[in-house]
Write a structure and sequence with these properties.
The chain has 10 helices and 10 strands. The N and C termini lie far apart (58 Å). With 260 residues, the protein is of the alpha/beta class. The chain has helices at 45-52, 74-79, 96-106, 111-125, 140-152, 170-185, 197-203, 221-228, 233-240, 249-259; strands spanning 2-12, 18-29, 34-38, 60-65, 68-69, 81-85, 158-162, 189-193, 206-211, 214-219. Helix 8 crosses helix 9 (233-240). The strands form 2 sheets. A 6-stranded mixed β-sheet has the order 6-7-8-3-9-10, with helices on both faces. Strands 2-1-4-5 form a 4-stranded antiparallel β-sheet. It is globular. The chain folds into 2 domains: 2-80 and 156-259, Rossmann fold; 88-155, no CATH class. The structure holds adenosine-5'-triphosphate. Adenosine-5'-triphosphate binds next to strand 2 and helix 1. GO terms for molecular function: ATP binding; ATP hydrolysis activity. InterPro entries: AAA+_ATPase, ABC_transporter-like_ATP-bd, ABC_transporter_ATP-binding, P-loop_NTPase. This is Putative ABC transporter ATP-binding protein YbhF.
Length: 260
């Protein structure tokens, strides 16, 4: 469903140097699978998603969604992808119903299908009572529900989630988790990028651990546990990236001593 093959991106920096933000990344995501693309800040996750969506040209390799190459047929790719980000972007001057209808129209959903789909998604996400409210009056959590509905309005086969729970409270995060489980039941392929590693452990079927533009390890949680000898994704990250926390517990004790 999603194929990424030797994908690379080199940025030319103002200093004249070059940065290999994504460096030969390959992975696949199948229908009904949630793939966790995880890594520290600057690992290259968002750049990978932008190339996959056809928003950014690659420097090498290719990506495809449902058989359509992002670099050759980006419009076909966008038609098949729903995007959820942490920026809960809604159109302030439209009602929620108008905004969802607007996006349905942009994606070419037939008008007679749109109404039923808005009602269905609003029911699923618990926002039916908000449909005729102006988007400008919605709370952060309500806006995120609206964004989730917007991502599915054209019934995409693939959903990309880039930090979907950033800034949300426990209830909001649980809703996003339920949404991701629902995607799996619908047989959609999904990529989840998140820094909440415990959340990723619970939600993803397989993981690609990214560091410095490369996938340094890939597999199910059990496979990664067997390979690394670590129990949690957090411990795996620290081990695989070869990085220790800036402060060891003994350092913290010293800091406390100095402070007292
Ligand atoms: N347009 C650009 N020009 C130059 N460098 C860029 C550009 N976009 C991203 N980068 C750099 O590429 C690297 C990867 O960035 P990217 O946003 O993909 O990381 P990320 O894994 O999504 O990080 P985060 O978890 O912090 O969002 C970073 O070093 C970033 O500074």
């Amino acid at each position: 469903m999603i194929n990424v093959e030797s994908l690379s991106k080199t940025f030319s920096l103002a200093s004249g140097k070059e940065l290999n933000a994504v460096d030969g990344v390959s992975f696949e995501v199948h229908a009904g699978e949630v793939y966790g693309l995880l890594g520290p800040n600057g690992a290259g996750k968002t750049t990978t998603l932008r190339m996959l969506l056809g928003l950014l040209p690659s420097s090498g390799g290719w990506a495809s969604v449902a058989g359509f190459r992002s670099d050759i047929e980006p419009e076909e790719v966008k038609r098949r992808v729903g995007l959820v980000t942490s920026g809960t972007g809604v159109y302030r001057w439209l009602s929620l119903r108008e905004m969802l209808a607007f996006f349905a129209d942009l994606y070419g959903v037939a008008p007679d299908v749109t109404k039923g789909r808005i009602d269905e998604l609003a029911g699923l996400l618990g926002i039916s009572h908000l449909l005729d409210r102006s988007c400008s009056t919605l709370s952060t959590g309500q806006k995120q529900r609206a964004s989730l509905a917007r991502a599915l309005i054209h019934d995409p086969s693939v959903v990309l989630l880039d930090e979907p729970t950033a800034g949300l409270d426990v209830m909001g995060s649980q809703l996003v988790a339920a949404f991701i489980r629902h995607l799996r039941e619908l047989g959609k392929g999904a990529i989840l990028c998140t820094h909440r590693l415990e959340e990723a452990e619970r939600l993803c079927d397989r993981f690609g651990l990214m560091c410095g533009g490369r996938i340094i390890s890939e597999g199910t949680l059990e496979e990664l546990q067997a390979r690394t000898g670590c129990e949690t994704l957090t411990d795996m990250f620290l081990q695989l990236s070869g990085e220790a926390p800036f402060l060891e517990p003994k350092d913290l004790a010293e800091v406390k001593e100095v402070a007292s």
